[in-house]
Amino acid sequence: DVVLSHLREIGIDNAVRQPLGVDTELFHPRLRDRDIRRRLGLAPQTRLLVFAGRFAAEKNMWVLEQALRILGPPYVLLAVGGGPHPPRGANVITLPFEAQADSLAGWLSSADALVHAGDQETFGLVVLEAMACGLPVVGPDAGGIRELIDDAVGVRVRPRDPKAMAEGIAALFAADPLTRGARARERVVARFDWNAVMP
């Protein structure tokens, strides 16, 4: 662990690493709403991407907005959150911040993949929550998200590059997103369930 090594180099020897965790019973694929596309007024073949979080400058919402513009139909972004920089576009649906964890889990588990463009995340808890819901993730090869996803559970892309984000999303769907989503769930249950991080 890089942080622990650095702390030891500067003379702090009694440090331990305590990862964050996620409630894998709350964030679970069983919450998937198979009627979500109809409820949102979308075609059945829509590839539904989700982002959940603050619409803040450091989240690089513009990357997702431009990537969706590049992709066009059948891709749609469902952005759940609030803040000064919401994504906009013909294939973007914005919903307000969701304070109830079970409702958020329902939105996450009902999508096909989580997309995240924030390259300054120290951890990226929503990434774990989405993975616990059985979603693969497309995110930047930077920050804390880099440590959570790899080719087994998603796609890492060049940060702050809408074309790379669009290509990563397309590559995910050209492969096997369901298998990656299942692996994502397995990884979170094994490594990041609260019972695993705080035995």
Question: What fraction of the residues are assigned to beta strands by DSSP?
Answer: 15-25%
Contiguous uncertain segments of 5+ residues: none
What is the average of the pLDDT values? 95
The total beta strand count reads 6
Helix-strand topology string = HHEHEEHEHEHEHHH
Kindly state the percentage of residues in helix. 25-40%
**Largest β-sheet summary:** 6 strands, parallel
Major β-sheet strand ordering: 3-2-1-4-5-6
Separate helix tally: 9
The best one-word shape is globular
Overall structural class, as computed from helix and strand content, comes to alpha/beta
Q: Nearest-angstrom radius of gyration?
A: 17 Å
In whole angstroms, the N-to-C terminal distance is: 20 Å
Verbal overview:
- The chain has 199 residues and is an alpha/beta fold.
- It has nine helices and six strands, in the order ααβαββαβαβαβααα.
- It has helices at 2-9, 36-39, 61-71, 101-110, 125-132, 143-148, 162-174, 177-191, 194-197, and strands at 47-54, 75-82, 92-95, 113-115, 137-140, 154-157.
- The chain has a six-stranded parallel β-sheet with strand order 3-2-1-4-5-6, with helices on both faces.
- Strand 4 (113-115), helix 5 (125-132) and strand 5 form a beta-alpha-beta unit.
- Helix 3 (61-71) crosses helix 7 and helix 5 (125-132) packs across helix 8 (177-191).
- The relative contact order is 0.17.
- The model has no long low-confidence stretch (mean pLDDT 95).
